[in-house]
What does this fold into?
Amino acid sequence: MKGIPTVLITVSPEVSAQMRPPRALYPNGFKIGNSLGGPGMRDLQRRVFRDALSLLNQNTRPGEVVMREYPDYGQYYEPPRVKK
Amino acid sequence: MSISRKCVPFTPFEGELPKSTIAIVTAGGVHLKEQEPFNIADELGDLGYRIIPEDVNSEQLMVTHHHYDHADADKDINVVFPIDVLRDLQAEGFIKAGARKHIGYMGYTMQLKAMYEGTAREIANEIDKGSRADAVILTGG
It folds into this structure.
């Protein structure tokens, strides 16, 4: 078995980056509990899901988190920070 | 299946999305209402996981997790477990299909070694054996 390709959708990018995920998407400003967007925001949820899957075919750098903007989320939440 | 601790466990994706089957693995504490809830009374966390079948109706799902506000997921499970979204992407031809099973677990534990060396491997094996997933989307709470 060679392994399973994965993509993480994270709303805690600093925390997730510590684990060096193979591929990861951070929708900028989404709050914890809203990984795909808000409830009922199906169009936004589809775009986030498509963007996450599309990282499978892109030259991302393993271990880094890719940030994307979704202005129609309409809110901004500061993500949790890692204490240094 | 073993998990690398020293380097990023990057598995190349050599397929095409319209020909690929996708599984969802969530740490958001999602499970079927008829399944045993995660044990939130245990301060060390619950190391178990629940298998969510491919034909699940999103109305059959719920969240048991006390380390994030899941009020929005209670209204629309797709905010952490995008099962209906997955089906939308299948209908539009973006992917081939959803996998035969998906996984929910509670992404909070004080037993990191047991999670890393036990639960994570068990979940990887569940996906590896019988899910037919070509790739996995991971979500947190």
Notes: The first strand of chain A starts at residue 6 and ends at 9. Chain A has a mean pLDDT of 95. Chain A has one domain: 8-73. Chain A touches chain B at residues 1-12, 16, 20-23, 32-40, 42, 45-46, 49-50, 52-54, 56-57, 62-63 (CB under 8 Å).
